[in-house]
């Protein structure tokens, strides 16, 4: 067969596509892997030159694809693979001993393969795998036309005897079209025939390892020539492959189809019968399934280990653990600078801190006010003077315009803005050079004679490393702040990071910090700003700062926060304040009835307020139903208390009651015959004289006895009174 170059080597892919279109062929464009770049190549293939130019203008390196069925074409695809398959040699072996092939187009592929293009015979041949790298393509498939460039590889067309328009005029030789079995064997290698069982290939068979793939092809590589012993060789191949099927390396249905195709190719099916071939394959499989194949040596083990561990492992150092360790004696003699604060009892001067609140709560205002207080020698939070030094403020959620407007609001009119404060609205993420940039600012400020003391990062989400899928959230949160904490302790500065809280409420404000405990566990100090039923608070927790809850207030006129005092004292309710005022004014214990009368608080509400105040230590119980301020001390003779029932003050119980004479109030009438003294009694007089009735004695009334308090009753029972 004489081959000649069918085109100029300088021809472009667009020229090839236009050449086929001029020859009345529809074309479409493909990528370097011969995959169509159109949604439906069967309908979108075109002969229009304008459309073709537009397609290849977008991708000049696109390959030219030809649909087979619309043009009535059939392609013998002969490939050469690394596993020992040689489709070119197989195709030539099929053609050996027959008449020479007619003039037909041949496409030379990049891997040394060949595409022989013929016209479909009367008995249509579809997509068939003929074994040993040879297959046909005729229905619902495509082929790649002669292309001058394939991104560094050549894909050339050689036409035996003439032009490429011979596609429609070169019929397939009769000895090829009469091959038995090609019209009924599907492209997946599994014949369309009845079987007792069908085993689908497992996942490991769909993507076998290179070692397994090579072993499989070595088992069936000895072809069965036209000589005696073909049946024995077929049985041996089925036996070997049966052992591989038992290991799950390849599916049984796939292997049976390939072996049958090989028997069709070497005419064993023609010489014997299809049933005889299937019986031989089945017997070999049954024996091979009982003898699973041995384990294969992993030839790529070194490459796999190198991919997992690209850097060579360092030799083990038995003294590596000693680096960085110290004894208690060494620690005792170490000298450290005195512990300092950026804001006294709130923000330490060394370490990482977190300030959190819900969005738009005002945390950026307090962060900027802190920066100005440190750089411009100003008071913050009302009456607190922060440490003075150079400050770096990363306002990553603000613009320059907003920063200017806020600083104008915070600083006095006409004052000079601090030069020691450096601001920015852009910063690299911490894992991508952000930590090194902070260190560089520190070194530069130190080199100029400055005193870097504080870095404020607003906000954490702008600088933290994105979380990779599958990473535990706790580890990701802890890693996000570990680098900041380590750098702050190394440089001896404070780094304040602004963060948010979650929507769900919690009794403990520390549990409201957004994220896992890895966020709060990685820093040294946590500041949480939140609203409580009694007011706004600043909750402080830390390794060096004592736990505190301060009442704070935002002044809208100045846009500054200030501390009101301890939240427990400042945020007492109105009812609690009235109760405390009544007890302080009385100076002695009061009962619930007295407090209800003084404060005009309903009894139920009063009882709850008294219970809460007593539990909080704001008041104390001195008896049953009696309350006093914590400073009150009972007198030596016992407390002088008010009753909780009558509301009247008690008087001390008298030692004895006054004695009364029942005859003391009796008035005798000394003159008889007087009138107007009815009701009086007298001794009888002479007969005939009127007798005056005795005077009625008034009822004796004792003085009202005061109610004895319980403490007095108890003392009397004990014998002290």
Walk me through the structure.
A hairpin with a 4-residue loop joins strand 20 and strand 21 (560-566). The strands form five sheets. A nine-stranded mixed sheet has the order 15-14-16-17-13-18-19-20-21, with helices on both faces. Strands 6-7-3-5-4-10-9 form a seven-stranded antiparallel sheet. Helix 8 (230-246) packs antiparallel against helix 9, helix 8 crosses helix 11 and helix 9 packs across helix 11 (274-289). The chain has four domains: 13-177, no CATH class; 203-289, no CATH class; 343-565, 3-Layer(aba) Sandwich (Rossmann fold); 572-650, Winged helix-like DNA-binding domain superfamily/Winged helix DNA-binding domain (Arc Repressor Mutant, subunit A), CATH 1.10.10.10. The longest helix is centred in the last third of the chain and has 19 residues, at 473-491. The protein starts with 12 loop residues before the first helix and ends with a helix. The chain is an alpha+beta fold. The model is unreliable at 1-9, 146-168, 183-208, 221-228 and 643-689 (pLDDT under 50). It is built from 23 helices and 24 strands. It is elongated.
Number of strands: 24
Query: Gap between N and C termini, in Å?
Result: 141 Å
CATH superfamily of the largest domain: P-loop containing nucleotide triphosphate hydrolases
Q: Could you say what the CATH topology of the largest domain is called? A: Rossmann fold
């Amino acid at each position: 067969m004489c081959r000649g170059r069918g085109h100029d080597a300088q021809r472009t892919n667009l020229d090839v596509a236009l050449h086929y279109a001029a020859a009345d062929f529809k074309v479409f464009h493909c990528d370097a892997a011969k995959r169509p770049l159109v949604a439906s190549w069967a309908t979108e293939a075109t002969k229009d030159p304008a459309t073709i130019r537009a397609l290849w203008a977008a991708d000049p390196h696109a390959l030219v694809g030809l649909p087979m069925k619309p043009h009535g074409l059939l392609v013998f695809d002969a490939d050469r693979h690394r596993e020992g398959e040689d489709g070119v040699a197989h195709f030539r072996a099929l053609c050996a001993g027959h008449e020479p092939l007619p003039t037909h187009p041949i496409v030379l592929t990049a891997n040394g393969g060949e595409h022989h293009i013929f016209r479909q015979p009367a008995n249509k041949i579809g997509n068939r795998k003929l074994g040993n790298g040879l297959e046909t393509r005729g229905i619902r498939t495509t082929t790649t036309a002669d292309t001058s460039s394939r991104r560094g590889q050549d894909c050339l067309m050689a036409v035996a005897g003439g032009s490429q328009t011979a596609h429609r005029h070169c019929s397939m030789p009769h000895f090829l079209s009469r091959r038995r079995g090609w019209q009924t064997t599907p492209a997946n290698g599994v014949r369309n025939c009845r079987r007792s069982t069908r085993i689908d290939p497992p996942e490991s068979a769909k993507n076998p390892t290179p070692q397994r793939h090579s072993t499989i092809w070595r088992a069936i590589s000895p072809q069965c020539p036209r000589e005696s012993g073909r049946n024995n060789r077929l049985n041996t191949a089925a036996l070997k492959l049966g052992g591989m099927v038992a290991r799950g390396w390849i599916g049984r249905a796939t292997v049976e189809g390939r072996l049958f195709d090989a028997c069709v190719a070497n005419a064993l099916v023609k010489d014997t019968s299809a049933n005889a071939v299937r019986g031989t394959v089945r017997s070999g499989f049954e024996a091979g399934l009982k003898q699973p194949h041995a384990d294969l040596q992993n030839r790529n083990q070194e490459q796999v280990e190198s991919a997992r561990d690209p850097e060579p492992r360092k030799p083990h150092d038995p003294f590596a653990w000693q680096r960085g360790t110290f004894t208690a004696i060494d620690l005792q003699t170490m000298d450290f600078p005195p512990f300092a604060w950026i804001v006294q009892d709130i923000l330490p001067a060394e370490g990482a801190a977190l300030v959190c609140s819900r969005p738009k709560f005002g945390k950026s205002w307090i962060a900027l006010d802190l920066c100005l207080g440190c750089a411009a020698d100003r008071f913050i939070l009302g009456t607190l003077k922060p440490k003075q030094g150079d400050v770096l403020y990363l306002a990553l959620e603000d613009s320059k315009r907003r920063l200017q407007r806020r600083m104008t609001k915070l600083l006095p009119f006409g004052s000079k803005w601090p030069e020691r404060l450096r601001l920015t609205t852009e910063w690299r993420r911490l894992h991508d050079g952000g930590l090194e940039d902070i260190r560089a600012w520190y070194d530069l400020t130190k080199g100029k004679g400055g005193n870097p003391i504080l870095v404020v990062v607003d906000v954490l989400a702008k600088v933290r490393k994105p979380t990779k899928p599958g990473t535990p959230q706790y580890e990701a949160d802890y890693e996000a702040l570990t680098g900041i904490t380590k750098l702050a302790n190394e440089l001896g500065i404070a780094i304040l990071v602004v963060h948010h809280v979650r929507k769900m409420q919690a009794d403990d404000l520390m549990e409201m910090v957004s994220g896992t405990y890895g966020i709060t566990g990685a820093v040294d100090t946590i500041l949480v700003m939140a609203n409580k039923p009694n007011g706004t608070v600043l909750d402080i927790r830390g390794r060096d700062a004592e736990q505190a809850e301060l009442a704070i207030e935002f002044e809208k006129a100045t846009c500054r926060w200030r501390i009101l005092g301890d939240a427990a004292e400042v945020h007492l309710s109105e009812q609690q304040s009235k109760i405390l005022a009544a007890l302080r004014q009385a100076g002695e214990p009061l009962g619930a009835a007295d407090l209800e009368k003084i404060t005009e608080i309903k009894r139920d509400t009063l009882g709850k307020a008294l219970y809460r105040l007593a539990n909080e230590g704001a008041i104390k119980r001195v008896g049953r139903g009696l309350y006093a301020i914590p400073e009150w001390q009972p007198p030596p003779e016992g407390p002088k208390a008010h009753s909780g029932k009558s509301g009247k003050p008690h008087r001390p119980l008298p030692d004895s009651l006054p004695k009364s004479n029942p005859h003391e109030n009796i008035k005798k009438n000394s003159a008889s015959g007087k009138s107007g003294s009815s009701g009086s009694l007298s001794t009888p007089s002479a007969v005939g004289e009127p007798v005056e009735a005795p005077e009625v004695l008034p009822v004796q009334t004792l003085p009202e006895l005061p109610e004895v308090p319980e403490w007095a009753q108890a003392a009397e029972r004990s014998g002290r009174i």
